[in-house]
């Protein structure tokens, strides 16, 4: 018994007419009659009664019809699920993001993706750029949002994301807290709480390059291993910090945020990118990348 025989039986049970059933099955009547006869012999039960009044299902045929239809529906569902998995429309997707992207970009990207691919289960995590890259290279992540390093990373594909604005986080009582906007040169004498280069060399490198363009080297006497850990250090009055704008969404007592601008009065920004293994086996990652391209604006 195979699925072809089951389909022949189900079509005949629906038509109760050998000629019409054969037409639907794109075959002639004799092979259909022979196939049904062999099926009955294999089952050891009559499935149809055939007389001058026509063709009727037997009691055994009615029972077999329900089971045959269930098997055919199951086979069709299995085939569709397999195609969907191969195309990345079902399954799971492991996504990791640095805190700034998790606070700002993911809240826009995830609903867009989930609406288009509701059967893909998202597994979310957060980390530093260095740890995320290591997980991507080990195949432990499918896609990530992070600050890209200055040099390329073997085996990783990149898609630039909108550049994100930078703010200065200062204690409430600090003289700079009253300013509407600042240039980096205005903080040359301040103690800078910096994100550790070992955790995010891309971000630390961008900050250093911006400061050097303004003609000074920052006094980074304090370091934090995580962007979110920076804010309590600022609240404690241990310095000021150049942070992603997304951190302003977090209310921390005794911390205010001031806009940072270049010499032309334009906002200072830093790079974010979407990364995935070049040999990634999860097709859903490609859909996620496409959704990021579609829903995230071209400018911060």
UniProtKB/TrEMBL annotation:
GO cellular component: protein-DNA complex
Alphabetical list of Pfam families matching this protein: HTH_1 (PF00126), LysR_substrate (PF03466)
Alphabetic keyword roster: DNA-binding, Transcription, Transcription regulation
GO molecular function: DNA binding; DNA-binding transcription factor activity
Domain named HTH lysR-type: residues: 1-58
Family assignment from sequence similarity: Belongs to the LysR transcriptional regulatory family.
Name of the protein this chain belongs to: LysR family transcriptional regulator
Gene name tied to this protein: hcaR_4
């Amino acid at each position: 018994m195979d699925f072809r025989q089951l389909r022949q039986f189900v079509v005949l049970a629906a038509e109760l007419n050998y000629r019409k059933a054969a037409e639907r099955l794109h075959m002639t009547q004799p092979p259909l009659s022979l196939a049904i006869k062999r099926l009955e012999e294999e089952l050891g039960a009559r499935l149809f009664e055939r007389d001058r009044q026509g063709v009727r299902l037997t009691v055994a045929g009615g029972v077999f019809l329900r089971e045959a239809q269930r098997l055919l529906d199951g086979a069709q569902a299995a085939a569709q699920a397999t195609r969907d998995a191969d195309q990345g429309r079902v399954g799971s997707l492991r996504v990791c993001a640095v805190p700034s992207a998790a606070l700002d970009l993911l809240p826009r990207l995830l609903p867009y993706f989930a609406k288009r691919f509701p059967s893909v289960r998202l597994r979310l995590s957060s980390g530093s750029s260095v740890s995320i890259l290591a997980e991507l290279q080990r195949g432990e992540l499918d896609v990530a949002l992070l600050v890209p390093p200055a040099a390329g990373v073997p085996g990783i594909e990149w898609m630039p994301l909108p550049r994100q604005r930078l703010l200065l986080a200062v204690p409430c009582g600090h003289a700079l807290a009253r300013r509407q906007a600042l240039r980096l040169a205005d903080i040359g004498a301040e103690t800078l709480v910096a994100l550790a280069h070992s955790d995010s060399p891309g971000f630390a490198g961008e900050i250093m390059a911006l400061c050097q363009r303004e003609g000074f080297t920052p006094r980074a006497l304090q370091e934090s291993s995580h962007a979110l850990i920076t804010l309590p250090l600022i609240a404690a009055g241990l310095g000021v910090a150049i942070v992603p704008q997304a951190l302003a969404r977090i209310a921390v007592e005794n911390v205010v945020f001031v806009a940072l601008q270049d010499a032309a009065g334009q906002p200072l920004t830093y790079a974010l990118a979407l990364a995935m293994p070049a040999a990634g086996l999860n097709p859903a990652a490609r859909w996620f990348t496409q959704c990021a391209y579609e829903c995230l604006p071209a400018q911060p």
